[in-house]
Write a sequence for this structure.
């Protein structure tokens, strides 16, 4: 008779359970540490700013050297800037992402371009601002305008839009493409009818997160399109405009005798605009995922 | 040894992936309105050979070939790739339901080929699903996502989709690998009916499948064509000892 194989040396159950709880607690603590400051900022700004947040504040021009009145031109200006940046960065970014994912292959050059784009996403926004000043304001002679500011924001958001588009396309299973090719569909037909529809939620998520980033950044519009104090609404892309992010900066650091509540209310409006964009992203994604096809 | 009109003809076909040779000079033809069975252990180059027939091999980075594949006597590389793939349909080992409705799955290729008329598509979809022995199971839920069908149903959907361009050659690459024996038998019966209208190349790991339905069987081993002959004759007594060993299960 052979003896039974020795059983695994099990540690005491109690110790194992204790370690499980410690790990879980540690992870929860890290999550709380990440979430709490963000929530604190939102609640503090809402608490301080809400007294000044009235309908008049949202719909009127600033008066008395920005110490009185509303912030309408800054809200409208931000929408203009974001609109122009989107008109540039979405088509260019999505098409470039498509090329990199579906056509470029895996050559050394393609990998180099890919790496360059990923690194471009890490360039500080003030550097983009200087680029915008040199390229759009001065070289192309667009002047300090919504066009220059919007294009600068567009260039800033482009790398992430390209990268997220590429990632979304690559997440569509390769065998869908093979099946289409086997049926005589061309590369473009395959992309347009099968790959793109299934990548859309991912692409949109990437785009809209960049929209909120464009709305929030100050530096890129500082030298390129944003005016300090311009109590009129822009009528074309050649105008200068006020912008929310710039306005917060101005009120806090440049203008004396502005009430605390006004400063916080302006920041709160900026926050709300950004959150609105993000919730559009979430709703869209949920809607598109509900039709998820595989 | 094998007679018949050469519908698909491989002439000294070699395939390489980078430096690795997977097919080394295969000369073989599929007789018109017959079923050519291709058997051989994994890694014999069977799949790559099929991919060369409908030119999907060229979509694989690093793959190249020498030699010629002729369809009706014409080098397939002289044809437009999309048109070629409509004439030479392909069913892959694992069923792929495209992420669209059952109807759209079957109507996809005809639409890509430019057919727009709804009536024409309706007729075609019903015919192909009927040919693939799937119509009765899905006729009341053509709007359902193709990916929600069971594995066996998806493979028949894949077959229906392959038939949707009225191909003259149908290539099947181990179509029964992911489906149950009952479905396999149903599809085999379908293939025997279909060969009246098209030429079939059946790559299979199941020797008995080749024995049941192939008219001609070819044995590939490590990229080399060992032997080809009328199926009954080959199974009754192969000329090459390696073929006999394989057929009797002594290796592979």
């Amino acid at each position: 008779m052979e003896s039974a194989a020795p059983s695994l040396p099990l540690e005491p159950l109690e110790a194992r359970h204790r370690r499980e709880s410690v790990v879980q607690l540690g992870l929860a603590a890290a999550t709380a540490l990440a979430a709490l400051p963000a929530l604190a900022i939102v609640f503090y700004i809402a608490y301080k700013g809400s007294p000044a947040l009235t309908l008049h504040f949202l719909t009127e021009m600033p008066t008395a050297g920005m110490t009185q009145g509303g912030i309408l031109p800054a809200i409208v200006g931000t929408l203009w800037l974001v609109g122009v940046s989107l008109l540039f960065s979405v088509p260019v970014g999505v098409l470039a992402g498509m090329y990199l994912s579906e056509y470029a292959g895996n050559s050394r050059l393609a990998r180099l371009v890919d790496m360059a784009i990923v690194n471009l996403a890490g360039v500080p926004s003030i550097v983009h601002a200087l680029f915008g000043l040199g390229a759009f304001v001065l070289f192309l002679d667009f002047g300090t305008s919504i066009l220059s500011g919007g294009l600068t924001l567009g260039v800033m958001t482009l790398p992430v839009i390209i990268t997220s588009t590429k990632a979304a396309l690559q997440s569509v299973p390769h065998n869908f493409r093979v099946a289409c090719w086997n049926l005589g569909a061309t590369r473009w037909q395959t992309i347009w009818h099968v790959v793109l529809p299934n990548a859309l939620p991912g692409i949109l998520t990437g785009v809209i997160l960049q929209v909120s980033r464009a709305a929030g950044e100050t530096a890129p519009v500082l030298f390129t399109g944003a005016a300090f104090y311009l109590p009129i609404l822009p009528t074309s892309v050649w105008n200068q405009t006020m912008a929310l992010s710039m306005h917060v900066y101005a009120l806090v650091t440049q203008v004396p005798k502005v009430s605390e509540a006004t400063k916080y209310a302006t920041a709160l409006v900026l926050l709300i605009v950004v959150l609105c964009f993000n919730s559009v992203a979430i709703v869209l994604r949920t809607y598109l995922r509900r039709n998820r096809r595989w | 040894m094998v007679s018949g009109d050469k519908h698909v003809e491989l002439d000294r076909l070699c395939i390489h992936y980078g430096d690795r040779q997977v097919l080394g000079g295969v000369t073989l033809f599929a007789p018109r309105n017959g079923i050519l069975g291709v058997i051989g252990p994994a890694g014999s180059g069977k799949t790559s050979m099929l991919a060369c027939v409908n030119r999907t091999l060229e979509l694989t980075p690093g793959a190249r070939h020498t030699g010629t594949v002729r369809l009706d006597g014409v080098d397939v590389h002289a044809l437009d790739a999309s048109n070629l793939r409509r004439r030479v349909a392909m069913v892959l080992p694992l069923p792929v339901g495209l992420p669209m409705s059952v109807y759209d799955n079957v109507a996809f290729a005809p639409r890509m080929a430019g057919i727009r008329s709804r009536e024409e598509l309706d007729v075609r979809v019903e015919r192909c699903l009927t040919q693939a022995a799937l119509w009765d199971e899905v006729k009341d839920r053509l709007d359902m996502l193709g990916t929600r069908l069971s594995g066996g149903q998806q493979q028949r959907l894949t077959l229906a989709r392959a038939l949707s361009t009225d191909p003259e050659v149908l290539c099947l690459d181990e179509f029964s690998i992911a489906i149950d024996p009952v479905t396999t038998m149903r599809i085999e019966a379908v293939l025997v009916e279909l060969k009246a209208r098209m030429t079939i190349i059946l790559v299979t790991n199941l020797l008995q499948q080749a024995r049941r339905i192939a008219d001609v069987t070819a044995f590939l081993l490590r990229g080399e064509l060992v032997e080809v002959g009328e199926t009954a004759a080959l199974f009754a007594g192969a000329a090459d000892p390696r073929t006999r060993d394989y057929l009797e299960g002594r290796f592979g």
User: Anything to note?
Assistant: The interface with chain B takes residues 105-106, 175-176, 178-186, 189, 193-194, 197-198, 293-294 of chain A (CB under 8 Å). Residues 127 and 256 of chain A are 29 Å apart (CA to CA). Chain A is about 70% helix and 0% strand. Chain A has a mean pLDDT of 84.
